[in-house]
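Is this the right way to post structure tokens for a design question? Let me know if I should format differently. Anyway, here goes:
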């Protein structure tokens, strides 16, 4: 099955995303501590990363860059409730590293929006979903 890494300092958001991902039969790990995220990324080698842009200690831009520097192939979905400035910056970082353009997920998001984005990003066919 495909693997999804969720990095968000808010436990509730991580739990909601993990529940939705389970309906798509994704093997999902949630990391709440930004300082541990890159280590988990390397160990888990996910197909996709859902990355919150605004977190304490390390923001999503720093983590995106660290993860891209590992050379491991992954697609990135960037979450932000703070407008598009961070997302544009992240797109620039990804382009610099020759990576696929990250996809944006704006908080607050709807379940259907998340499901659609995960299906599209991970090329999951639209089968039954709970």
């Amino acid at each position: 099955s495909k693997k999804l890494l969720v990095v968000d300092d808010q436990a509730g958001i991580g739990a909601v995303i993990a529940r939705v991902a389970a309906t798509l039969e994704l093997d999902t790990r949630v990391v709440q501590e930004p300082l541990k995220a890159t280590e988990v990324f390397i160990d888990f080698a996910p197909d996709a990363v859902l990355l919150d842009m605004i977190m304490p200690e390390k923001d999503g831009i720093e983590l995106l860059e660290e993860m891209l520097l590992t050379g491991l192939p992954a697609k990135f979905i960037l979450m932000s409730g703070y407008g598009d400035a961070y997302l544009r910056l992240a797109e620039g970082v990804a382009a610099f590293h020759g990576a696929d353009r990250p996809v944006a997920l704006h908080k607050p998001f709807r379940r259907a929006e998340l499901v659609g984005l995960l299906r599209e990003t991970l090329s999951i066919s639209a089968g039954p979903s709970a």
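Format looks fine. Someone answered above. Worth noting: Residues 11-23 form the longest helix (13 residues). The beta strands are 3-7, 27-31, 48-52, 75-80, 103-106.
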